[in-house]
Structures
1.
Amino acid sequence: MSAFSNEPDHFLNWCKSENKVKIPKDELPGKFLSRNLYGKYLDEIFKDALEQKSALINFEIIREEVIDIEKSGEQYVVHSNSGKKITANKVALATGNHPPAHPPLANKNFVDSPRYFANPWQENAVSNTEPNETILIIGTGLTMVDAVLGLTEKQFQGKIIALSPNGYNILAHKKHHPQRNILDELAPPFDLTNLFRLFYKHVRDARLRGESGETVVDAVRSHTQIIWQQLSLEDKKRFMAHVRHLWGVARHRLPSEIHKQIQEMIAQNNLQVLAGRINEITVSLNNLIVDISLRGGNKIQTLKVQRIINCTGPLTDISKFQSPLYANLLTKKIIRPDEMKLGIDATADGRIIDHVGNESKSIFTLGSLLKGKLWESTAIPELRKQAERVAELLLNNN
Ligand SMILES: Cc1cc2nc3c(=O)[nH]c(=O)nc-3n(C[C@H](O)[C@H](O)[C@H](O)COP(=O)(O)OP(=O)(O)OC[C@H]3O[C@@H](n4cnc5c(N)ncnc54)[C@H](O)[C@@H]3O)c2cc1C
């Protein structure tokens, strides 16, 4: 979680300095620390960096929404929602994750219900609950866990039901070493069928050695971007349709303390994980009625819930974003979706590719918006490298 790719222990050393954390120093490596602390770390090093360069850099944060960007000769004019206009030589789009898409149901009346929370990252999704509410969380990934923890922190006492097509349980991080044997056989050209066979073999071998299968996924983490870029479009589509969820389970795991807390909630029936698909959500006076086809049969379950939190993961198709900025950038043909509709079409180092395929030297992107190009473009180890590359592009005058 260090902010600097060339100093992997920077965050660890920051935590050790001045006793920032009440954990014995020798136990710190490998511990999961709070996001609050991580926020303080980023804030502190950012302020320090600005202070050191204050003679060279004029830095200003404007807390407004950007609603449009237009090209004006070699420059860009950036428009904010208050009517402010900023002229820039270079622009970086770093807008992060977009809230999830609504469940694709024919009857969309539920979208306007105050009982439906479309953005799981907004605090209101987990606050002001009634004591005995039943809450349906759509999605069973890490955002679901975040929502459950948020509700628990706010002393929610009612029942939580989490639903996804497969109802996969989230795994815990265990103390183990990545099983690197797979790397000896991982060579281009890459195709999904052979990769699947190779993974299957190494997961089986790892299990025979008493290790878990996730150790194989950990071993290839730093290679996934290269593999993804070399897969054919057809293979990428097959991966998204058939392997993505399983990959996500192995790749995105929980700190063991949190995993234990979630398992206890399941054992006490405070949290129930269902596998199935929603057919319909009907709005009634005090409830949302949810019709679900359970997985593996023709069984229908009807739930009466008082709140639904959409935790299905960020929407990635930029043409569907509810955002004036993205609508305008698409209309002006400054950006286009990548071939998988996972973000913005761009080069691997973040140069945006316009509607006719030209790579820009002045408008860049990074983070979740580069998922189409890199797939693995979510967490700090990738983001810090991308930020360094985009910083170089911003400074480069060619
Ligand atoms: C709930 C959650 C938990 C995560 N936990 C971890 C973790 O533990 N470890 C890890 O490595 N990664 C984690 N990630 C992934 C990743 O590290 C974070 O998503 C990270 O904050 C991404 O940084 P970012 O700068 O790309 O985007 P963000 O931090 O989302 O920043 C985007 C910024 O752009 C602004 N913005 C958006 N649109 C506009 C606009 N039109 N005009 C002006 N401003 C705009 C937003 O307000 C925001 O300030 C997590 C992600 C989520 C969603």
2.
Amino acid sequence: MRKILSLMLAILMVVSVTVVAANAADADAAATGVETATVTLTSVKGNSVTQTYAVGETFTAYTYLNASNCNEGKIGSLNGSQEYTSSILEVAETYVTDVDDYDYGLLEDVDTIFPILKSATVGNAGIEGIVYYNASIPSKAGFKFNADDRALVILRYTVKAAGEATITNRMQTLAVSDDMLTRIIDKGAIVNPDFTSPVALSEPAPLPVTSTVSGTITSYSTSADASDEILVELIQDNKLAYSATVNGNTVAYSIADVADGDYILRVHKENHVSRDYEITVSGDTTQDVKICPIGDTNLNGRVQSNDGMFAYKHAQGGAADKLEGYAFKCADVNNNGRVQSNDAMAIYKQASGEHNLF
Ligand SMILES: [Ca+2]
Ligand SMILES: [Ca+2]
């Protein structure tokens, strides 16, 4: 008797919890004035994503296939379906039902359900709540599903009622395009789990647009070795994003596959003053670069006594003699942020060969 009582109590508790949950959902709907449906999309491998939509909203369900570990992803035959909760959802694609001899409709203009080929049939069955698709290809090239972004089925649905809905991918047959049409999935059972099938309810972020950054670097010999390496860096948000090295004095550089955006192009070479260029990459971008030896105040590629004179004049404070920007950096040979008479003296000594800056 006690057992029965506690069972009844347990049932009552479950019921009351359910009622509270339902009330909470009602409260949400009342607060926002919007009725919603929670939709869960599940792949043939059981991974799923869930999202909430307003009644009346149309959304897209993305299902991908990557079988790169099975015959390089070349699929020769597939037969799949997507089952959905038809009391909550309806397929938003247009489909025709007045085709002779069809007891189900054909989806039309669905360019994103894969594979749409002459040999494919795509239908919304007379049984509401299932979309079937199937195809086979005799060629050994098969359909290539060799990356996580290879679309298998991309279908739009409209939410017609509030509640909880599921969209479940099923596969009767999935076979690689070899002589035997070796099955990955056979009669609905996964016989080779060596594939992935990502699903998503939001459009995956597009691959970044990339461009090439290139140009000519002018630099100078400051040692016997004219092939000193030049390091080119692209820095974004204070982080190194891309880099390349080239060798020589006047030399072309090129960095491919750079995501579009704003960067600092920073160039380094031994015995030279590193230089920054602010660049915006939007399509292929050319930026020529010139870097000068330490102490080359007038940026002519050589350290001479007049470089020392320019540094000295700056140190003396004449307004007309102020060094700025890269010339200032080249003159500040001890790199203390100021151009002073000791910088000028060091440059004189370098020019006269008395002392080596490098
Ligand atoms: Ca110079
Ligand atoms: Ca200095």
